[in-house]
């Protein structure tokens, strides 16, 4: 196994890390809460649009835009032919998705006794990594501490090079994990499932696969799998702004998740964008991608236009190399250190009880109380009647933090007019917070122009310009950093762009739209036996999404192993009973009030561009039943661990 180099030591100790952190809100002047809430309402109002999520083009669903999905990274010669990977047209476990989520499902299954040769992992990408395979833009890194985000650190012995890992390190580590657990020969790349159909008689899934290797005719294959796991990621289908004229542009244009280094110069390991010298560049969007990329673009482009609808709330990051001695003394202190670090991290997402020591001490733990709407809060409201008072409590907690972030803009950006436009007027929980140490100061450069569209976005694109309001900006290159399909919409079928037919031919897309999911613990649906899910529906969320995925991966591995033991060598179907699924859905709904605060937010992918607010009452009931566990990921993990420890497979039915 080829190891990834570990970091070299440098003299950074825990005392320096704590003193330099700069996250505390002490000393912030009293905030006029009424004024701030009025500003929040104004920002939300100018962002609301009748077209909602339709203001974007879902690239994968529109044939006119398929060129934007071209894979810049694939080595087709290294991609195995689909026929050679299914010599018997069947496998025991088929995993949809070769990102970190798919790897965690595969690894937990291997640890539970499933042989790697009995697993097939398919992905339309050309390699492992998922979002870290596709996204390789300059400046790419994870905004969650690497000692938390990178899973299995104790098992691999790997030490992240930096406090916040680069995208390249995360992708390389995924390859290391695949090699360590013998999964390299299980992967079938440039391949996707088109249809899953349950066969009750044989107790297996019939799957239609297609492989589209670059510059080759597509190949199709029908296979059978006893089990399928849908682990297609959270942010995986890129979207473009539905701006008239985007296909008429005569310069270079691409989505940030398919970065064109042939056009910009540089590489995923070298952000020297030399081919942009003398070029006028527009980047559309000011989310997490742009926050990381804009400082690099500004260093090389003759002129950079940043097209903004809503500013990001950008806090201090505090990147640094990992000091090996400090890591051993302060992070990897004893067996189980990573799980304990996660527990400490998650405890901050609670408005009542806080840990005495902050092991992580980063922007997330500082912002945690403002993110309880997304992560869940065991101290949240028990009924919707308690929600207004809870919202006032959250706003009071969050106001000093967001005020400090806005003041940081004034301190970093010299032009007061530009600084004003870069200040975020919405609560922390309405958008994923951003962290960067150079983004704001980049707007002090003479070659950087903020094009603030007051929430509307660009109006149109011509052959050589991007138009916003009354201004036309001639550009040579347009980069669309406009994100991905909203992760909380649709079903696992939509997330994978496939058809899933379960018992009696029931369509997952139609059934979930009608009643919502019918799962126990969010991992198996009553109507779809032997089909393991990966959340977030009726499961949990963590700001570090891989933890949530791993909770379900461990759960799925236990269920498969225990069901197989009970079936005693016979083909079997495992799924929750209808009664157990109904009970779990009720429990999820009863714990949904803490999550309701996302409605009423400034539009973003969190609330499907304001679409959640417009849902009729009957749909809101389904959404509450379909949502995430409102008491937080640690509470959820405790429930499923206790269920496994009890050992009776309560609520699940194994049919032979």
TrEMBL record:
**Sorted UniProt keywords:** FAD, Flavoprotein, NADP, Oxidoreductase
Q: Which Gene3D superfamilies match?
A: FAD/NAD(P)-binding domain
Q: Which GO terms describe its molecular function?
A: flavin adenine dinucleotide binding; N,N-dimethylaniline monooxygenase activity; NADP binding
Q: Which SUPFAM superfamilies match?
A: FAD/NAD(P)-binding domain (SSF51905)
Q: Which cofactor does it need?
A: FAD
Q: Which Pfam family, any one, appears in the UniProt record?
A: FMO-like
Q: Which family does it belong to?
A: Belongs to the FAD-binding monooxygenase family.
Protein name (Swiss-Prot/TrEMBL): Uncharacterized protein
Organism this protein belongs to: Massariosphaeria phaeospora
């Amino acid at each position: 196994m080829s190891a990834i180099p570990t970091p070299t030591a440098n003299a950074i100790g825990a005392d320096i890390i704590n003193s330099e952190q700069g996250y505390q809100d002490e000393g912030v002047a009293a905030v006029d809460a009424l004024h701030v809430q009025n500003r929040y309402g104004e920002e939300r109002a100018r962002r609301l649009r009748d077209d909602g999520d339709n203001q974007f083009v879902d690239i994968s669903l529109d044939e006119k835009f398929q060129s934007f999905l071209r894979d810049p990274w694939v080595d087709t010669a290294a991609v195995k032919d689909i026929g050679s990977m299914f010599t018997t047209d069947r496998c025991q476990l088929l995993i949809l998705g070769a990102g970190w989520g798919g790897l965690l499902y595969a690894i937990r299954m291997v640890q539970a006794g499933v042989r790697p040769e009995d697993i097939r992992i398919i992905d339309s990408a050309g390699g492992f990594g998922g979002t870290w395979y596709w996204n390789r833009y300059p400046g790419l890194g994870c905004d969650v501490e690497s000692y938390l985000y990178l899973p299995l650190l104790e098992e691999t012995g790997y030490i992240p090079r930096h406090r916040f890992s680069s995208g390249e390190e995360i992708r390389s580590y995924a390859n290391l994990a695949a090699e360590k657990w013998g999964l390299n020969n299980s992967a079938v790349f440039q391949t996707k499932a088109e249809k899953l159909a349950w066969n009750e008689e044989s107790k297996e899934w019939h799957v239609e696969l297609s492989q589209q290797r670059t510059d080759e005719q597509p190949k199709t294959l029908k296979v059978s799998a006893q089990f399928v796991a849908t682990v297609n990621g959270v942010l995986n289908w890129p979207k473009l702004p539905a701006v008239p004229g985007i296909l008429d542009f005569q310069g270079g244009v691409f989505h940030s998740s398919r970065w064109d280094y042939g056009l910009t110069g540089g590489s995923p390991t070298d952000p020297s964008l030399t081919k942009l010298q003398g070029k006028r560049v527009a980047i559309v969007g000011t989310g997490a991608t742009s926050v990381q990329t804009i400082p690099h673009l500004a260093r090389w482009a003759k002129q950079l236009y940043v097209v903004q609808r809503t500013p990001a709330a950008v806090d201090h990051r505090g990147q640094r190399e990992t000091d090996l001695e400090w890591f051993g003394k302060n992070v990897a202190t004893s067996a189980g250190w990573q799980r304990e670090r996660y527990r400490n991290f998650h405890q901050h997402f609670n408005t009542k009880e806080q840990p005495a020591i902050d092991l992580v001490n980063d922007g997330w733990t500082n912002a945690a109380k403002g993110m309880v709407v997304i992560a869940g809060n065991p101290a949240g409201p028990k009924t919707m009647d308690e929600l207004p008072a809870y919202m006032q409590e959250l706003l009071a907690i969050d106001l000093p933090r967001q005020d400090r972030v806005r003041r940081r803009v004034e301190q970093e950006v010299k032009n007061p007019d530009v600084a004003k436009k870069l200040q975020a007027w919405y609560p922390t929980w309405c958008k994923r917070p951003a962290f960067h140490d150079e983004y704001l100061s980049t707007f002090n450069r003479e070659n950087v122009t903020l094009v603030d569209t007051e929430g509307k976005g660009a109006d149109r694109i011509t052959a050589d310009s991007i138009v916003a309001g009354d201004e036309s900006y001639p550009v040579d290159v347009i980069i669309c950093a406009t994100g991905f399909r909203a992760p909380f919409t649709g079903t696992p079928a939509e997330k994978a762009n496939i058809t899933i037919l379960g018992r009696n031919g029931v369509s997952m897309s139609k059934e979930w739209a009608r009643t919502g999911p019918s799962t126990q613990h969010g991992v198996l649906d009553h109507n779809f036996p032997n089909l393991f899910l990966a959340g977030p529906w009726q499961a949990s969320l963590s700001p570090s999404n891989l933890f949530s995925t791993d909770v379900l991966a461990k759960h799925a591995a236990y269920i498969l192993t225990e069901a197989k033991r009970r079936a005693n060598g016979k083909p079997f179907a495992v799924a929750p009973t209808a009664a157990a699924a109904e009970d779990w859905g009720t429990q999820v709904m009863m714990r949904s009030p803490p999550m309701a605060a996302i409605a009423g937010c400034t539009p973003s992918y969190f609330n499907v561009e304001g679409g959640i607010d417009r849902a009729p009452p009957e749909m809101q009931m389904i959404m509450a039943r379909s949502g995430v566990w409102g008491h937080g990921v640690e509470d959820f993990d405790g429930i499923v661990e206790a269920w496994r420890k009890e050992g009776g497979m309560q609520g699940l039915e194994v049919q032979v």
